[in-house]
Amino acid sequence: MKILEPTLNESLDEITDVLSYLLDKKEMEERISNKFFKNVLIENEDFSTLAFSQIKFQNCRFLNCSFERTEVTDTTFGSCDFSGCSFDSTYMRRVKFQSCKGVGTKFTQSNIEHLQIIDCNLDYANFDASTLKKACFEDTNLHSSNFAQCLLKEILWNNVQLVNTSFFHTSLSGMNFTTSNISGLVLSDHHQELKGIIVDIYQAAELSKRLGVIIK
After folding, report:
1. Number of structural domains, the chain?
2. Would residue 2 count as lying in a domain?
3. By the number of CB atoms within 10 A of the CB, which of 12, 19, 177, 213 ranks highest?
4. What is the pLDDT of residue 10?
């Protein structure tokens, strides 16, 4: 599986007054391209419906902000904090989150392709009813997060904490969880989500108990 990297220009225009710039672009309904945002703290703002392409965010904190119905392509987020933000109904393609925090962030009903989430804390994040294709979650915390009723295709899980995470009515067929912690997964009563899952012997022993199988 090959996940495409974000494509960024070597020279990006740095924006100093980020809040005013974003709100102006929202009011004018203009796409934001080829920009660099860094070292900002913005809380409780509405940036819904904005379109971002070829953007670099570095050391930015957007707390409890709305990015609903946005379009985000060829964009990187480095050491950013999006805790409590909403990306509901968002389209993402070729996007990377590196060393970011997004506790309780919502990505529900979104369409996401070629996504990389590396060394992040996304505990309690919500991806319910989203489509994710060609995505990599690596060295990341997703404790008590939600992937219910999702369509997941070509997903890589590498050293991910998925304790008490919900995959209710989401097929995990063909996915390899052998390097991740999947204790306490939330599943449907018939555990159909587990069909075709790849696990190690210890994970298999734990999951078998939920299926009523006793291994001696």
Report:
1. 1
2. no
3. 177
4. 87
